[in-house]
Design brief:
3 domains; DNA Polymerase III, Chain A, domain 2; alpha+beta; about 40% strand; single chain; 13-stranded antiparallel beta sheet; eight-stranded antiparallel beta sheet
Length: about 375
């Protein structure tokens, strides 16, 4: 195997695989990256059995071949090279020789046959969706997915096609039991995909999909499909497969409150910065903020006996009785941070029902946050 590639392209290509290959594993080969040259393309393959990535690059191929090498070490070597072209070739003793100018590295490898087989997608229906749509849905939900390994059916993002009076839309939902986020695409932005029961994508898989789409333009066409219990995400140069969670997602619709709360319109930037100032008081033991709603103002207050106290007043249009509700300040920050509009709607229901952060005049996003005891 011999090929030449620009250093910045090679570094970025390897870096994209590290979320998959650079993990603790009892199977050492899973920390390796398979490099293969064929049909005038350099192919990089990474897998941890649950997530697989095949990336293809058009580079000058001088000799076809394949070799598996440590993904982390290859990345560290390429990262330290000067800008310019990098020449790579396999040696007689199963190593990869990496040359850039007068710099030479020799990285020991393993035969390609020892690397787990990752097959290309064939004869699987694929449905087009814009990369920006998928990124937006992921950003607005993944932060709510549970990290508790004992709650497997909450360890991911649930995706389904929603049909209602608002049109046919792609929908994502995530919850950790204390909060929940729901996001919809625009009508008819689902590419014709049909998900009869919905699918549960593991949190780490969603993060890797998001990372894969980072460098693509919002209007770049991405294709989604299902293949033997895996979600397929395909572009012109990448194919990612993510194993789905084979468990039933909680009945999230039961957690959506039916009764109306008190709507408060508030400037997003002002509220976000005020909450971040409150979060300075947070520690592992305490991370709450008390929201006090009074005539014409909303007061944020955070008292931590181990640290101190913070408070701030913001003007809002409110005329009614005083309300006092406590929330996890990080939950509020994360719910508002993913929004881009100038104003947000904060719906408060008191001390026993979830508060809701949503858009003004749109149902495309809602984050439900259970209050704290104060």
């Amino acid at each position: 195997m011999r090929f030449t590639i620009a250093k910045d392209i090679f570094r970025t290509a390897i870096q994209r695989t590290l979320g998959i290959s650079d993990r603790k594993s009892t199977i050492p080969i899973l920390n390796y990256l398979l490099l293969k040259t064929e049909e005038e393309k350099l192919k990089l393959v990474a897998t941890d059995r649950e997530i697989s990535l095949i990336a293809r690059y058009d580079v000058p191929i001088l000799e076809e071949g394949a070799l598996a090498v440590s993904a982390r070490k290859l990345f560290e070597m390429v990262r330290e090279l000067p800008e310019g072209e990098v020449h790579c070739e396999t040696g007689e003793r199963g190593q990869m020789n990496i040359t850039a100018g007068k710099i030479r590295y020799r990285l020991m490898g393993l035969p390609a046959e020892e690397f787990p087989a990752v097959l290309e997608v064939e004869k699987v229906p694929l449905y087009p969706i814009r990369a920006g749509v998928l990124v937006d849905l992921i950003e607005k939900t993944v932060y709510c997915a549970s990290t508790d390994e004992l709650r497997t059916n909450m360890n991911g993002v649930f995706m389904e096609v929603d049909e209602s009076v608002n049109g046919v839309r792609l929908k994502m939902v995530a919850t950790d039991g204390h909060r929940m986020a729901i996001a919809y695409s625009e009508p008819d932005e689902h590419g014709g995909m049909s998900l009869e029961k919905g699918i549960l994508i593991p949190r780490r898989g969603v993060v890797e999909i998001r990372r894969l789409l980072d460098d693509l333009g919002a209007d770049t066409q991405v294709y989604l499909g299902l293949d033997k219990g895996m979600l397929v995400v395909k572009t012109e140069d990448f194919t990612m497969k993510v194993g789905l969670i084979d468990q039933e997602f909680p009945d999230y619709k039961r957690a959506i409150p039916l009764e109306k709360g008190i709507d408060i319109k508030i400037n997003r930037e002002q509220m976000l910065h005020a909450l971040r100032r409150m979060s300075v008081m947070s520690t592992d033991r305490y991370g709450g903020v008390v929201i006090i709603l009074r005539e014409g103002e909303i007061i944020l207050n955070s008292i931590n006996p181990d640290v101190g106290e913070a408070s701030e007043e913001l003007e809002v249009e409110y005329h009614g009785e005083e309300m006092r509700v406590g929330y996890n300040v990080r939950y509020l920050v994360e719910a508002i941070d993913v929004m881009k509009e100038e104003e947000v709607l904060f719906e408060i229901r008191g001390s026993f029902k979830p508060g809701v952060v949503r858009y003004v005049g749109s149902d495309q996003y809602a984050s439900y946050i259970m209050p704290l005891r104060i």
